[in-house]
Amino acid sequence: MKRCILALFVLSGSALWSQTTASPSLARPASQSNSGLQAAEKIAQQDPKRVVATIDGTPLTAEQALNLLKEIPDNQRPSGNLESVLERMYLINQLSNQALQQNLQNQSPWKQDLQFTRDQILAQAYLQHLNTPGSPAAQSAKQYYDSHPQEFEQTRLSGILVAFAAPGTPNAAGKIMRTEEEARAKADDLEKKLKAGSDFATLARTESDNQASAANGGDLGVVNASDPRLPASIKTALANLQPGQISDPVRIPNGFYIFKVVSRTKMPFDDQLRSQIITKQIFDQYKIQVKDPTFFGTNATNTPSLANPSPNKPPAASAPSPTPATPGKPASTHP
């Protein structure tokens, strides 16, 4: 239980801990902190009973000091002054012991906080355990990957945006004021030029209203057809295009896009993708199905779950698809 309390302090980013990591005068590069810990390990191994510090009049041996420092998980160990880190860990240890003496671990709200933190850590540990290569979950993920190739296909796109203004839009300097009909006529003309052999990158630089991608010859980065953020009209337009082919103008809320498929590749089945598929399968298994909407204070027949808090924003771990490049990504096709 004491270790759980210590972890709670360290992982929560409390003011107590932040005093160690945020002080400019004590900050050091991570490499120095790591080398300092290596030196401490060497001394503790050679002479574990050597007194290396005193805190509040209490002597600390090399072995005791190292044990305190090693209570911090490797991926949470701050890159600060090693003496200050030890000082804070000793303080946390003492406060933790005093809390235990007062039986605070069995009182609200600390009891619930500890249980919640414990459950989160164990849940993450179980997900990592499932992701072990060769495990049944890993094998299931590989089978899913092999049987759903379209979900893991990456498409690199270039695009030309011809924007229009909605009726009633107030005129302003620098704002595109063409009508939808005018935009459609221009997009059709550009499509003809492109399919007659005009260079896509050249036209994108001079004609696209997406300034960010136009500067890069229309490059929109990489998208994935299974990405829920990708509009259905764009998915349909890209579905049957082969590398080098150009789409008809695709209407979006503020304009028309002409796309060129640069390449299609399949995401490699690496450790990260395997973990994403496993996590998605777990989330799908435990997705809530509402039977009594009145209990939840809503008339909806199905409400967003913790695993998927927003229908338009799935958690990163549950969506095995790459994030489109920032410049002009089709998922947010604003000029």
CATH class of the domain at 153-268 and 321-332: Alpha Beta
Summed up, the helix count is 12
Number of strands: 6
- The overall pLDDT average reads 80
Could you list the spans in which at least 5 consecutive residues all have pLDDT below 50? 1-33, 302-335
The secondary-structure class comes to: alpha+beta
How is the biggest beta sheet arranged?
A: 4 strands, antiparallel
Helical content class: 40-55%
CATH topology title of the domain at 153-268 and 321-332: Chitinase A, domain 3
Task: Describe the global form.
Answer: elongated
CATH structural architecture of the domain at 153-268 and 321-332: Roll
Amino-to-carboxy terminus distance: 55 Å
Over the alpha carbons, how many angstroms does the gyration radius reach? 28 Å
Sheet with the most strands: spatial strand order: 4-3-6-5
Please give the oligomerization state of what you see: single chain
**Approximately how much beta-strand content do the residues carry?**
5-15%
Order of helices and strands: HHHEEHHHHEHHHEHEEH
List descriptors.
single chain; 335 residues; alpha+beta; Chitinase A, domain 3; 4-stranded antiparallel beta sheet; two-stranded antiparallel sheet; 12 helices; elongated; disordered N terminus
What report would you give on this structure?
- Helix 1 crosses helix 5 (82-101), helix 3 (30-46) packs antiparallel against helix 4 and helix 7 (136-147) crosses helix 12 (271-285).
- The model is unreliable at 1-33 and 302-335 (pLDDT under 50).
- The protein is an alpha+beta fold and 335 residues long.
- It contains 12 helices and 6 strands.
- The strands form 2 sheets. It has a 4-stranded antiparallel sheet, with helices on both faces.
- Among the domains are: 2-102, no CATH class; 153-268 and 321-332, Chitinase A, domain 3, CATH 3.10.50.40.
- The protein is 44% helix and 12% strand.
- The longest helix has 21 residues, at 110-130.
